[in-house]
Predict the 3D structure of the following.
Amino acid sequence: MSKARYTRLADLMSKAIREGKLAPGSRLPTHRAFAEASGVALATATRVYKELENRGLVAGETGRGTFVRDPGLPMTLGVHQSAAEGVTDLVFNMPGDPDDAAMLRAGLRRLAAAGDLEAMLRYQPHGGRMHERRIIAGHLSPRLGPIGADRLLVTSGSQHGLAAVCLGLFRPGDAIAADTLTYPGFKSAVALRGLELVPVSSPDGVMDPDDLDRHCRERTVRAVYLMPTVHSPLGAVMDEAARRRLLAVAERHSLLIIEDAAYAFLEPDPPPSFLALAPDRTVHIGGFSKNLATGLRLGYMIAPPMQTAPLVEVIRATTWNAPALISALVTGWIEDGTLSQCEENRRRDGAERQSILRSVFADRPLIAHRNAGFAWLPLGKGVRAQPIVTELREKAISVSGAEPFAVTAAAPQALRLAFGGVPKAGLAGILQTVRAAVRNQDPPA
């Protein structure tokens, strides 16, 4: 059968999706059922589905089928795409401070006068220089409890840590449980390794232990990925009782816990971490992008002794070592108190931005942490995110729908607003434009 035939079928399906005749989240027929209904060979049906996937209109889920994506969202919106020049970016959370440049200049001057500057031009230990690992461990210990520096590995950012965990501790086809809405960067790392994400019911960003237990009884699950202290995108902080219930399930089914602490610094008085509750079952991952600067690309992993060696091998294979200059810069900021001050500034700035947000969306059901520079905006019944995203794009404002965060194909209708990098003086006006676009889609009263 000619290429034109499968292309025509793909065009017809594309038209149905774009016109809303096939709604986002709808399950398509199996390849065989589509072939029989269309009067084509099975191989042709497979080519049609592959073409639709290449166009970004459908997504396949292992063991579940093929589902319609929201055509209003770019295929790569989330962790792969940045806003164009001249566009206000509400997709990526990029916190900043007017004093950051001065902080960097001072840090570089201090570094230039360091006695071991030449050593930074050489290869470094794969897990980081031991004295710097001790400094990072000391900074974290008030929140996480005592940390052996030999268990802490320095990475090129927390995303590198997530990728290292996926590459070093799992095999293709392994299943990892995650919230139904989760961090897109972890989804990318999972896909890179050929792993499967198992969506677990997580009301308001807190995973349901009973649903996790059900999945583990029905199939083999190797690990669970959690953001217990300031969930992204929902901002939830899991209380200690909920953590202990999940830990009981993890122990029952021998699950490794992957604890992502990217935004944990926003919560000044958090419950005990999973690392503190179960140090021999938890890989704790964090970084210095959200609390210092996104361009620094320095992070850390704290792993059980049995997992440390394979993680070191991934660091060796991917980056050899984290950048020595950046590591020295950051640990210097830890020692002189700059990092702690930056974290306090980020919390205060986030609280002020949340106040602006809530004054603009006073009549809308926002979901957010009180100190975060991002929020989740569920849309009303019958309201779809696509027209809002499109309208705002035409007004040079880039926002994200729920799809990049969704583990299931059927994403909820919502907007994720990341406003930490928008100049505060103009934030209210930008948010009012977003609110107007949302209001334009409200059903008639």
Remarks:
- Residues 338-360 form the longest helix (23 residues).
